[in-house]
Design brief:
Length: 487
């Protein structure tokens, strides 16, 4: 082919690489998206499967696994465009597939300097990353997926799996897309200048509020499960928590849509806040309960990660430490004191305390971002170029008010819409499993056990399988009988 026949965008770039493509940004964004995906699968799959009683390990892990797959298909079929496409309403984008255009640039290859403020009244300029639409669809998918999986943490141990299968696409469509478009995709809160760097409102506040709301409608676990629901494997809980913690580098580091200074600040601040929060939570456990709790440390880690998320790339390191102190103490207080003394909260069975770790921490982080957002760092993050926190004077107090209004919108929408979805699903299938299934657990629901140590129908015999059994007998049994697990 003659050089004149080659499209300009593909010349002098080495094969099929267009001139507008920033390979570094594209590579980081794909990497960040995959890291966030690993937070969910296997991160939360392992965390959920090990934090519940043994009899619910399979069901809990499967709820996360199913949601990841279901969200992807819904996302590329209609939900991505509802979150980031052409405006239909100030809170919603127009539905449509994101499949046929996945190889194109997300909107147009214009540098940020060529964007403008409409009539001087819009806080936020519309920006376009320099990589294919497929990259952005993938990156935003993993955020949508993990939101549903976090929500599931409130419903473990009793929600009818068939109801969960219906709930996932409905909640994604009528709740998540609203928050995503309003705050990130060009909706009214986006243009008003609400700071939600990586999802403190869109993901964590919404999943925590929706999880508590759904838990109210689904109903509680069996009484004996609520009273005794110890993790079946604490070490695997730490493994899942570790994947979640390190994976947050992609969660917050990918938010600027570029491999830049904001991304570096976001990653460092994320780990500073998480570490501080973990230490504060652990110290509070020691001070009040006389023992450092591993599960408490995991909760503190999560609240720190959630709290820093809305402001990860727009606050200084010292502010990340201060936010960590708040995130390790206030959610601890709401979970350990307020929840136990509130008759209303006691009636709602939030299995893993998602309301406290995500809703409370997300709300807290959003308000603290309005206080500590640093002007120069805000100017580097295209989404909020003219903002600053209250501690820096000027219009900083206004930013706190904006953050509060944004959080109240997310809270109100999720309470109403999640309730409607649960009532609709309840008309089709029961939201809660029947008591006979709740008594047995995984084997009754899925016909599978997480830890099938003995063959189907084989009776546990202390003389054969116990620590004090006769060695010769044990050797004989193992050499002549091979237990076979059958469904």
């Amino acid at each position: 082919m003659a050089d004149s026949a080659v499209p300009l965008a593909y010349r002098s770039t080495g094969g099929n690489v267009p001139e507008w493509l920033n390979k570094g940004d594209n590579a980081w964004q794909l990497t960040a998206a995959t890291i966030v995906g690993l937070q969910a699968v296997p991160g939360l799959v392992i965390l959920y499967g090990s934090m519940v009683k043994k009899k619910w390990a399979v069901n809990s892990a499967f709820m996360a696994f199913y949601a990841f797959a279901a969200v992807l298909i819904c996302w590329v079929t209609w939900a991505y465009k509802m979150s980031f496409g052409e405006k239909l309403l100030p809170i919603w984008g127009r539905a449509g597939p994101a499949l046929s255009q996945s190889y194109l640039l997300s909107q147009a290859a214009l540098p940020a300097s060529e964007h403008f403020y409409k009539n001087g009244t819009i806080e936020t300029a519309m920006g376009t990353p320099f990589y294919p639409m497929a990259t952005l669809v993938y990156f935003q998918f993993v955020f949508a997926a993990i939101t549903l999986i976090l929500l599931a943490g409130s419903l473990l141990g009793r929600m009818n799996f068939m109801a969960w299968m219906l709930f996932v696409p409905l909640w994604l469509t009528f709740s998540y897309t609203i928050g995503a478009f309003s705050l990130w995709g060009g909706g009214f809160l986006f243009h008003w200048g609400i700071i939600d760097f990586a999802g403190g409102f869109v993901i964590h506040l919404s999943s925590g509020v929706a999880g508590l709301t759904a838990a109210y409608w689904v109903g509680p676990r069996l009484k004996k499960d609520r009273e005794n629901f110890l993790p079946n494997n604490v070490l695997l809980t730490l493994t899942g928590a570790g994947l979640l913690w390190l994976g947050w580098s992609g969660f917050n580091g990918g938010a600027p849509y570029a491999s830049n200074l904001s991304a570096s600040m976001a990653v460092l601040n994320t780990h500073i806040c998480a570490a501080t929060s973990l230490l504060v939570w652990t110290c509070l456990d020691v001070a009040f309960f006389k023992k450092p709790s591993v599960i408490g440390a995991v909760q503190g880690m999560i609240t720190g990660l959630v709290c820093i998320t809305p402001g990860a790339g727009v606050v200084q390191g010292w502010a990340a430490i201060v936010m960590g102190v708040f995130s390790g103490s206030i959610p601890w207080f709401t979970m350990m004191v307020v929840h136990k003394r509130s008759a209303f909260l006691q009636k709602i069975d939030d299995t893993l305390g998602v309301f406290h770790t995500h809703a409370v921490a997300g709300f807290l982080g959003g308000l603290l971002t309005g206080i500590f957002a640093e002007p120069k760092l805000c100017s580097l993050f295209l989404v909020v170029t003219n903002s600053n926190g209250a501690v820096y004077g000027g219009n900083g107090g206004i930013q706190v008010g904006k953050q509060l209004v944004g959080s109240l919108f997310v809270i109100g929408w999720n309470i109403v819409v999640t309730s409607i979805i649960c009532l609709v699903v309840r008309l089709i299938v029961p939201l809660r499993m029947p008591d006979d299934q709740l008594t047995v657990g995984d084997d009754a629901v899925h016909g599978e056990d997480a830890y099938a140590l003995y063959g189907d129908g084989e009776k546990y015999d202390q003389t054969t399988h116990g620590w004090n059994s006769d060695e010769a007998t044990r050797h004989h049994e193992l050499s002549t009988v091979v237990p076979v697990y059958t469904r």
